[in-house]
Amino acid sequence: MRYQISGKQIDIGEALQTHVKTELTDIVSKYAGRPTEAMVTFSKSGHEFVCETVVHLSTGLNASATGKAHEIYAAFDSSSEKMDKQLRRYKRRLKDHHRERSQPVELSDAGSYILESRDESEDSEQDASNPMIVAEMEAKIPSLSVGEAVMQMELSSAPVLVFRNEKHSGINVVYRRDDGNIGWIDPRTNGSA
């Protein structure tokens, strides 16, 4: 597994990096046999240390957790406990869905844009159908089954996930509805699934 351990305006020593690698390897190996990458970022927020951990699995799932504490090691331990809980909760579902997957999930490149928001009362010279692009980034679209996409969305606590459906290679969307259920948009079908 590749590790990217960094600090935002704080120095992290070799001892902390070794601790992070050892603990994350133990946690991830218990629940998911094929991790590919782990990104751990330490920062300071007021008087607390913040540790953000994201683990990418070869199954296409991304698990993320954040921990806060007055000490940097305690912040990581808090984050790793949350990661452990997430992976433990999804272990059975991960095993069932990914037992047959022999290759890592295929990722497609896509553009991701942030558009300027406007107040309706604003008088703007620019046409509302042509909003201004504020930022442009690269995004990765995973090729997943619908069940895997739902798990990915829940693991990352995201409100929506765009993915390429493995059945027909079409772009699909899963999202969390206001009523708590999961919605699935598949433009290829005409309402009959």
Automatic annotation (TrEMBL):
Renumbered residue ranges of the record's region Disordered: 94-128
Broad class of where this protein is predominantly found: cytoplasm
Highest taxon of source: Bacteria
GO cellular component: cytosolic small ribosomal subunit
InterPro entries, per the entry: HPF/YfiA_ribosome-assoc, HPF_long/plastid, RHF-like, RHF/RaiA, Ribosom_S30AE_C, Ribosom_S30AE_C_sf
Keywords, in A-Z order: Cytoplasm, Translation regulation
Domain Sigma 54 modulation/S30EA ribosomal protein C-terminal: 130-183
Gene3D superfamilies: Ribosome hibernation promotion factor-like, Sigma 54 modulation/S30EA ribosomal protein, C-terminal domain
Pfam families reported in the protein's UniProt record: Ribosom_S30AE_C, Ribosomal_S30AE
Any GO BP: negative regulation of translational elongation
The keyword Isomerase appears for this protein: no
UniProt subcellular location: Cytoplasm
GO-annotated molecular function: ribosomal small subunit binding
Subunit structure: Interacts with 100S ribosomes.
General function of this protein: Required for dimerization of active 70S ribosomes into 100S ribosomes in stationary phase; 100S ribosomes are translationally inactive and sometimes present during exponential growth.
Family to which this protein belongs: Belongs to the HPF/YfiA ribosome-associated protein family. Long HPF subfamily.
Alphabetical list of NCBIfam families matching this protein: yfiA
Protein's recorded name: Ribosome hibernation promoting factor
